[in-house]
Automatic annotation (TrEMBL):
Species annotation: Umezawaea tangerina
GO molecular function per UniProt: hydrolase activity
Matches recorded under PANTHER family: BIS(5'-ADENOSYL)-TRIPHOSPHATASE (PTHR10151:SF120), ECTONUCLEOTIDE PYROPHOSPHATASE/PHOSPHODIESTERASE (PTHR10151)
SUPFAM superfamilies tied to this protein: Alkaline phosphatase-like (SSF53649)
Protein name, entry field: Type I phosphodiesterase/nucleotide pyrophosphatase
Amino acid sequence: MVPRYGAGALSDVVPSLLAALGVAGMVNVLGVPSARRACLLLVDGLGWELLREHADAAPFLASLAGDPITAGFPSTTATSIAALGTGLTPGEHGVVGTTFVAGEDMVLNALSWSHHGAPSFTDLRDTLVPEEVQPHPTMFDRAAEAGLTVRVVAPHEQQRSGLSRAVLRGAPFAGVHAMGDLASASLDALRSADRVFCYSYHADLDKLGHLYGPGTEPWRLQLTYVDQLAASIARGLPKDTLLAVVADHGMVTVGDEDRIDYDTTPSLSAGVRLLGGEPRIRHIHTEPGATDDVLAAWQHLLGDKAWFLRRDDAIAAGLFGPVVSARVRPRIGDLVMAAHGTAVVVRSVVEPVFARLLGQHGSLTTAEQSVPLLLHSS
């Protein structure tokens, strides 16, 4: 499922909202109704198919007008937040996965902004400066320049994170601790001025999906709480305000039989210089001259469990958007693997937490790519 960049993807959401708020130069691709204020509530992990399947657990969200859009590639949190924060495709903003090559021999974890695979945590905010890794102006920069009051409402520990600096800069940050203050801070932002754009983020549904699997009892109960969160914000909206609810990706459940361990399978690592991505999508950077042999080895082991594309073919297919800049191109693997079904390529040594998770995402299946865009106006 190739993302519908420019016609219905996460990178189109904030430009459409800002156009609806009257910001010049923004294109309302998604046909968002006009308003004076807007709150974009991102519910991490709430895929369209999951919401439809479990609509009884989220009656308010299920009642809202909306359609599915596509996440982008990879369908993962860091890439999706970058799309929302910048209004750009992965080929432009450059956050091409949870982990990706940034520099000659460095794999960056975009969520922790650390050296991925290092024996101990290495903070890279001074080495790989976030504002240089993603140098484009954000949507918050653009909105503030147009005279809007802007605000980010998100977990307090994310305030100065590398990812926040890279893709959410330009707005005052309201750090929150739970659903109650997330709703309250969002409403405070919306009431603070006549023209407002507020971005609010909730992470716990994704966390429980990873730990227990989407659709399980803990996940469904959390979805009910998320539904109440969205309804609470909707009830408190000032006049002429739009609430838009989106997700960054869906999720699939994987079992032990679905896992292939890169760290204990020598045939997978032979000829591989660096490995980025995450279990459902891998950027495979090969040693000089080894690409053909690496492709053959991975295809032999995974068979029909994954798609494989060479870098040029992945770019030509539009997986990263219509434009891939020279700055971003080296971050894409010489080979790109995107898993079918519920297969994953895990790393039990380097990524022990990722390797154990029951819920996974990142690939091109509709379960992962299709996310809701739900609208409510006051």
